[in-house]
Amino acid sequence: MKTVLITGTSSGYGRETALHFHERGWNVIATMRTPRADILPESDRLRVLALDVTEPESIAAAFEAAGPVDALVNNAGVPSISVFEGTPMTRVREVFETNTFGVMATTQAVLPQFRERGSGVVVNVTSSVVLGHMPLSAVYKASKMAVEGFTSSLALEVAPFGVRAKTVEPGACLTTEFAGKATNRAGLEDLVPAPYAAFAQKAMESFTGQNLFTRESDVAETVWRAVHDTTGQLRFPAGPDAVLLAEAK
Q1: Which of 1, 60, 152, 170 is at 20 to 30 A from 212, Cα to Cα?
Q2: CATH number of 3-248
Q3: What amino acid positions are annotated as catalytic residues?
Q4: Please, are residues 124 and 74 in contact by the beta-carbon 8 Å criterion?
């Protein structure tokens, strides 16, 4: 029986992905900054562990407690919708610490066991922002584009050892807690200098008024497909809007 370790499972894509793998017979290590066992089913095949991807000690402790795993899904992330000119560099660094450096740190922690065993797969969840030109996402997109570049190079480095690396690119999902935080009007206003106000409002209306959105189940199913893919495909758009963007690109 195979085991997957998933980061950021307290809600949204991560929680749905944990449920998806569990329902299909995998052992699941569901990790989150503040463990909450009540949001996932009780099962001898599902464990909840504390993991803060920005803390080296937390990463080491989580992987030691998890034991051998067959797949790592880097899903943990923080949203950032803002006008770049109004975004403090402290916020920029915070986004990169989780979305980029956190992915690299957990990946580096799992690679020795994958390499020594001659098998394993890393799936990094990025975003459909990497597929198109979208306003109010300069910082967020930069953090996710970095992961795309990291993964494409990583895939070549680990392939000789039987290890695979993939990215999953979810579209816009307004039903997740993640999306709710990202589109919070009060928070956005704090990061929009007055000259950008009209532009930002129009951009947000365009985003929330689009016709196609990604469901959490779309992402879980795509992660499942990426984990099992052996064709060499690197990128997997998730959700109808992401698929359209990928096709247009």
Answers
A1: 152
A2: 3.40.50.720
A3: 140
A4: yes
